[in-house]
Design a protein that fits this description.
six-stranded mixed beta sheet, 11 strands, 28% strand
C-alpha cells in the first residue's frame, strides 16, 4: 500500500525508530517520511545520530556488533526489518555512497559491472550497455571510455566518487543514501557531484547527510535537523532555513551552535 504526504508519495518512512549500541541509545524514537524523487537532507552537529539513522535505512547497522534497532523502517509500506526480508536484495533496492570514495580494487568496468553481475541483472552485451549507461549518467563515460580496464583507484577523487555513484545506480535501486559524499572533494568536484545529485533526483529518491548548510539549501527539498539522537524539526528546506519553528533549529542553521 502506498503512503502519501500531500501530493507526494512516501517512498520510505521511519516509525518510532531507535538505535542502541549495547546499553547506549544513539537514536531516539525517530519519525520521518522520505518522499519519492526528492532529496532529503539530514543535518546536525557531529555525533547527533545522522549517519547512524542513515545506515538504518538499508540495514547497514546489521553488521555492527552490539547494535540493536527498534521500531520500523518501511519501503513502499513494507517493513524492511521484517524477518522475511532478504537483506542482499534490500541493498540492491537501496544503494549507498559513503563519505570517502571507496572504489573496489578492480577495473573501472568491473566496479560498475560487479553489482549487476552478482544480482544477475545483465550479462554480455546487456551488461556492457548497462555499464556504459551508468557511467554516462554520472558524466564519466567520455572521461573513461578508453581506459575501462584501468583500476578505479587511478581516477581523481571526484571521479572516484562519481564512479561509486555509478556503481550504486547500476543495480537499478529505488533509493540512494549518501553519507557526506562531498566532504573529501575540492570545490570543483563538489559542484560536479551536486549537479549529478540534482539530475539523479528525477529518477531516484535520495537521502543525504551533510554538515554544509549551504549544500543542504542548494540540494535538498526536505531537511531534518538532528540533535542528540532526536529530530528537533523536519520539513520543507525553505521553511527549515528561513522560518524554523524551534529556536534550537534557528540557532543551528544560523551558525550560532
Amino acid at each position: 500500500m502506498k503512503q502519501n504526504a500531500g501530493d507526494t508519495e512516501i517512498r520510505m518512512a521511519a516509525q518510532g525508530l531507535s538505535v542502541f549500541y549495547g546499553t547506549k541509545q544513539a537514536v531516539f524514537d525517530v519519525e520521518l517520511p522520505i518522499l519519492t524523487n526528492k532529496v532529503t537532507a539530514l543535518i546536525g552537529p557531529s555525533g547527533c545520530g545522522k549517519s547512524t539513522f542513515l545506515r538504518c535505512l538499508n540495514r547497514m547497522n546489521d553488521v555492527v556488533a552490539g547494535c540493536r534497532v527498534a521500531g520500523a523502517v518501511t519501503l513502499d509500506g513494507h517493513d524492511i526489518y521484517d524477518r522475511s526480508v532478504d537483506v542482499i536484495l534490500l541493498r540492491q533496492k537501496i544503494g549507498m555512497v559513503f563519505q570517502k570514495a571507496n572504489p573496489f580494487p578492480k577495473s573501472i568496468y568491473e566496479n560498475v559491472a560487479y553489482g549487476p553481475r552478482i544480482h544477475r541483472l545483465a550479462r554480455g552485451a546487456d551488461l556492457d550497455a548497462l555499464v556504459e549507461g551508468s557511467l554516462e549518467r554520472v558524466g564519466l563515460w567520455e572521461e573513461v571510455k578508453d581506459r575501462l580496464d584501468t583500476p578505479g583507484t587511478s581516477l581523481s577523487g571526484g571521479q572516484q566518487q562519481r564512479l561509486c555513484i555509478a556503481r550504486a545506480i547500476a543495480t537499478e535501486p529505488e533509493v540512494i543514501l549518501m553519507d557526506e559524499p562531498c566532504s573529501a572533494l575540492d570545490p570543483i568536484a563538489t559542484a560536479r557531484v551536486e549537479e549529478l545529485i540534482r539530475e539523479l533526483e528525477k529518477k531516484y529518491t535520495i537521502v543525504i547527510v551533510t554538515h554544509s548548510m549551504a549544500q543542504a539549501q542548494r540540494l535538498s527539498d526536505y531537511t531534518a535537523f538532528f540533535h542528540l539522537g532526536k529530530i528537533i524539526e523536519a520539513g520543507e528546506t525553505g521553511q527549515i532555513f528561513q522560518a524554523p519553528v524551534h529556536a534550537q533549529t534557528k540557532d543551528y542553521v544560523s551558525g550560532k551552535i
